[in-house]
Amino acid sequence: MDKYNYEGLIGEGTYGVVSKATAKENGQIVAIKKIKKILVQGQSDDGINFSAIREIKILQELKHHNIVELLDIFAHKSNVNLVFEMMQWDLQEVIEDRSIVLKPADIKSYMKMLLQGIEACHSNWVLHRDLKPNNLLMSLEGELKLADFGLARQYGSPNKMFSPQAVTIFYRAPELLFGAKSYGPSVDIWSVGCIFAELMLRTPYLPGTSEIDQLRKICSALGTPNETNWPGVTCLPNYLRFTEHPPTPFKQLFTAATDEAIDLISKMLLFNPAARISAAEALNHPYFTTGVKPTNPIDLPIPLAKRSNILQQRQQVQLQQQQQDIQNITTTSNNTTGVDSTNNIQVEPQQV
Amino acid sequence: MAANFWESSHCNEWLLDRNKIEESNSKDKSYLTPMELKRLRTHYCFVIQNLGNALKLRQRATSTAIVYFKRFYLKNSFVDCEPRLIAVTCLYLSSKVEECITQAKKCSAKMKELDHTFNYTMNDILECEFFVLEELAFCLIIYHPYKSLPLYLQNSGLDMASIEIIWGVVNDSYRTDVCLMYPPYVVALGCIYLGSYLLKKDIKQWLSELNVDMKEIWEVSKELIDCYEFEKLSSQNPSEPDFLYAKLPIRNKK
After folding, report:
1. CATH code of the domain occupying B32-141
2. pLDDT tens digits, one per residue of B13-57
3. Which architecture, in CATH terms, is B146-234?
4. Residue B97 distance to chain A (closest CA, Å)
5. Composition bias, kind Low complexity: at what positions (chain A) (predicted)?
6. Which of A48, A300, B8, B159 has the fewest CB atoms lying closer than 10 Å?
7. Does A47 lie at the interface with B, CB-CB under 8 angstroms?
């Protein structure tokens, strides 16, 4: 607590509020997630929030530039506080911002970073289980990072039974909707497929209002699951028979998409979880190796409401960098010439 | 094997050499001889195991708790941090991490059943929880030898019936410090090596064909043999842990 200067609330997460703060030690701007201790009457106190424990244990092991970094953890009063690197906006803000035009190269850039983050999770045997645009955060430099690991779990552990009630409903894989208790990384890939579609459509692809409605929406978009396209589906605990419905061809919906993009999304949204493409395979898909190159993260669009602020922050960082460089040059030239640096170069701070 | 061991904090930060482990319980050494300290440290492994059994937790959670307990006392001492409270808290925390959560209230109640002199309450455990987390540097994922056992056994040609004996040997290994020193696959092979000796089966040929450091495997099995001998000797004096505990001027004892 004493290590940070609080600068106000910036949001509310699933299990606590998030504040912006500056680390006194090095001036780094951070986001501090305070985990509320909820005491339900009549129930005994269960100590540190279970989701917080999950998030701590997983993020402590996962370090990747497309996964939000957990910098510090501290306790204050009876709350646990998780300190993250500061992120600036999320993908949902981008999708909903009508002033932004997403070019195919931008979408490719988001997809690449998203899949790299997911691949890091999966190769560490971690399922995210709650991928959605507002869990995909963007850094000042435009890097996309996965956040909110409160639902994440290690898989491959002996108790393979998971709760089917993970993942926000729009992005929920059909095997979860049918109540499968044993599932794998393919549930995250389904969510990635839905996000891919949403980036192209600029509106949620399968916005179900309930689990049944979600399944109905899936069927009307992708056809009806049956033993042919998904062996074993009829044996799932909550399997429901839907009337046979032909799928809507992707090409019809995503009119501007390239053949490679269509091929990739169709492999992400396969009914059979075992046939769905993996994150590593997806990264090697022709979509990423042909056509336009993914946009550099720094050139990705910024939501209008934050644009001037972000550009200003970037300028400041650049300025600091330049000053640092000049200082480095003067100290090195000092070392070689042995001349006192005080009246060598004066750095005038520029007005931003 | 679950998760990527080679990139884990367990592999990169928590495999320690013997000198580092010798630094454990530094302050307690003013009150106990090295043998007495060893006796007491082993005793708390049994305490955690018994409590885990009483709470019907998975063995994995119990083993994780024992590793937490050992890691905790690398920098702390019994005189400063009451070992029974830390033992219970480690188990409570590991039940969350290993996704078989139990209640703090249950933990303190069961512990009281097993040890009538235990007067800590649920609140003491909850207060202690974050402190334990901090002392563990928030590194919570522990890798265990259990998962690789069936695969190794199948591959070594030992029959699957021997898994029970070897599984027991692996559980016993947590009372030694091998879990702090060697990666879980080395511990697994060390336990299999010892198990094959107990079962009078020769697997030397198989071991020699593996690309592993035989010296380490031999050291694991030696640690285990030492542990069994030490426990055989100390079992003649079952009340010794209570006596040793009483010798320690523990702060804030309840």
Report:
1. 1.10.472.10
2. 999 999 999 999 999 999 999 999 999 999 999 999 999 999 999
3. Orthogonal Bundle (1.10)
4. 7
5. 330-344
6. B159
7. yes
